[in-house]
Known about the structure:
2 domains
Amino acid sequence: MTKAETISFIKKIKAYYPVFKLEEEGVDEWASRLKPYSKDDILRKFEEHLKGEYALEPPKLHFLTKFLKTEEEKERFSNDYLIRCNLCGQQMYLSEYDNNHYGKCLLVKTIMLYIKNVSYEELDSYATEKLERVLEKYVPFKKEIEYKR
Ligand SMILES: [Zn+2]
């Protein structure tokens, strides 16, 4: 995404979110962080944000580039394609899903069944090992069930 494209993208965000403000150095930061990605991918993520859980707030850079591949990575993995996780509904590349996403998403979703008032986003920010420990602690009968089988 070129700097000019980033600037017009920022205008688009402002059209949806009048409270959204970026100083000049913020614009430069966005331009350099978005540079490796394609404009279409970023716009697609923005559309996803508008329909998502956090649509009331302007999108964060972190969200806009999450699960995306840079143009360079796309060339390296040309046989990869986009899928939607059927647990959380997020869109991502199959390689990302297989290598990083599926196991963690399953953990997050399982923990959410036992702990109320915790968001997917919050749990997802912890490392997988930590989530495994949480699961052990809050689901004490898990072992018992396995034992009975
Ligand atoms: Zn998922």
